[in-house]
Amino acid sequence: MIPRVHKMGSRTIGLIRYLYGPGTHEEHIDPHLVAAWDSLVPDPGRDPAATYEDLQRLLDQPVEALPKSRRPTEHVWHLSVRAAPEDPILTDEQWGDIARRMVAATGIDLGDGSGCRWAAVRHAEDHIHIIATTVREDGRKPRRHNEAKRAQAEARHIEADYGLRRLNTGDGTAAQRPTSAERHKASRHNRERTPREELRESVRRAAAGAHSEEEFFDRLAGAGLLTRRRVAPSGDLLGYTVALPDDRNKHGEPVYYSGSKLAPDLSLPRIRERWTGSAEATSEDDGRPEQPALPPVTGPAFARRRATAATWQALLIIDHGDDGTAAAQIAAAGEILDALAKTSAAHTREELRDAAFAFERATRSHVKAVRGHDRDLRQAARDLVHSGPALARGEDGATTAMLIDMAFFLAITAANWHAKKHHAQQAAAARQAAEHLRAAYQAAAAQPMASLHQRGRHMSQPLQRRQAAVLRHAVPDLAEQILAEPGWPALAATLAEAQAVGHNPAALLTEATRRRELASATSISDVLVWRLRRTAGLPAYGASAAEAHRATPANGQPTPARQMPTPSTPRTPHR
């Protein structure tokens, strides 16, 4: 149940006409009273003899009784209360009870006989609107301090009492929800999402990895959005608005939204923070030596390997860094997901899009992100965008699975971090994103894992036994579980490839299992396959031992054509 305190108004009759009227797009059905401060209040929706003006005069009487000098300029209070989509349809009596509880919780009517006058109107199955005038019967103002938080707290009690979906209390950092009119309009036009939501997704994708205003606005134009820029008399750019070409108002004009109305972090000043960063965010701050410039992106697979390495570093920073640095990594992780959803093949695109859409809520909290520390993730997002669409097969498809696997663990890490900070909505959003990533991984990994599985099954029996012995020696506590998993042959093939190019497979296994938890993994063997292939620099799609050996120089390190440079020093201690 979602209560929302709206902006105060000055015209009682104006809000009454809206509540009882047809709505912006005829979405108001059978408007009528479900409760009021007095049981004898006339209902213009059900009583033909009652008028809007009758209700307005009664609501305004305490205001009009004050001397003009004491009357508040804005005296019309407005609260909407909406049920969750999956909640059962409540009766008028139940909504009436909810209305009485809400006006008591917010201080509008404490039940002392001298409260403010109010009325609750229902014009749809899933919500009500409460209108009140903010002068009590005794002429005093109501005590409305922290009314929004108190309304949220009462909503949690109502959910428990009525057996409704239990929502998490917000902290004011969420994106603005679509209005009822926007949802009805989207439904009439057969849109999956409202224009506000579509624009938020498109703007986030345009900002993912962008390095300048010019690049950001070029991407908006490339996405087909209509854009207006707000320029000061000095010529400085102050802000922007965007619209979908086919979203028009009744006058046939595009409906524009400012960035801040799409999400708090999509205003132009907040987007600028991404590419300006922090002057103090230098290599000395994050505890690692200055890294040489990475080579230009050469293709989707290369970009995905680089993004996987950056995501791995982000996991460690979230685990061990300070709050501001961790918040920056989580925010930049949203850019990785936006870029991945934009550039991945069709069979994973929908789940990745849903993952990015869900994770968006996890990217903001009251912990201020210290920008600059997230430069590696943002560069990786930029690489993904500039590398172009990835194929569903071969090295493109396999590195996509590798990155999604790492992104899943990042989402779990973000959920745990938010949970420790008591950010309930953000933690829930990160967990929801993780489930979409799990589904996307299953689609992306099917082909490469099947190929590796066949390689493992076709290895000689002595070689298979040797790899099983390596596993039992390196991770005795997990060995039998891993050997029983369907993914074991793929892991055995990976161990053989790593050994063929000069790595110690037991050491790789030990390192891979101690660095991160594995309890959330559906298949431990799958996770270890990707960790080993990334660490050892093996082709993601798999190669025979002979092919892997030929592709590796005498020093045992992978060639640049096969593998990107792996970051030499982690920023923070390993778990």
Q: Given the structure, what is the number of helices? A: 21
What's the structural domain tally? Answer: 3
Major β-sheet profile? 5 strands, antiparallel
Percentage of residues in helical conformation: 40-55%
Rounded radius of gyration (Å): 29 Å
Sheet with most strands: strand arrangement: 1-3-5-4-2
Order of helices and strands: EHEHEHEEHHHHEEEHHHHHHHHHHHHHH
The rough form would be described as: elongated
Structural class: alpha+beta
Low-confidence stretches: 278-294, 544-575
Mean pLDDT: 88
**Cα end-to-end separation:** 40 Å
What percent of residues are in strands? 5-15%
Q: What multimeric state do the chains show?
A: single chain
Beta strands, count: 8
How would you characterize this protein structure?
The protein has 575 residues and is an alpha+beta fold. It folds into three domains: 2-162, BirA Bifunctional Protein, domain 2 (2-Layer Sandwich); 190-276, no CATH class; 300-550, no CATH class. It is built from 21 helices and eight strands. It has helices at 12-20, 52-64, 92-105, 147-162, 180-188, 195-207, 213-222, 259-262, 268-276, 300-320, 323-343, 346-359, 375-387, 394-420, 424-457, 461-474, 479-483, 488-500, 505-515, 524-536, 545-550; strands at residues 2-5, 32-36, 76-82, 117-124, 127-133, 226-231, 237-243, 257-258. α1 (12-20) packs antiparallel against α2 (52-64) and α11 runs antiparallel to α12. The protein is elongated, with a radius of gyration of 29 Å. The chain starts with a strand and ends in a 25-residue tail after the last helix. 45% of the residues are buried. Residues 278-294 and 544-575 have low confidence and may be disordered.
